[in-house]
Amino acid sequence: NPYLAFALLIYAGTEGIQKALPLPEHADVNLYTVSEEKRAGYEKLPQSLEEAADCAKNSGFVKRYVPQAIAKMFF
Known about the structure:
Blueprint: H1 2-18, H2 36-39, H3 49-57, H4 60-65, H5 68-74
């Protein structure tokens, strides 16, 4: 759901500003051609929809901002 995704992005940005969280290092390289050593320094995204749903289901951040009734529909 794009509306849920955008809402979580806004909550993430707001929470980051309020808590003065540091930004991760920027990725200004082509991740397809960069060395494996450099690529290993970046956190990987889930590789499947099922893996992404599991991550969301176990996320304290998502639980804090997505009502349980809505979360049940997606996770």
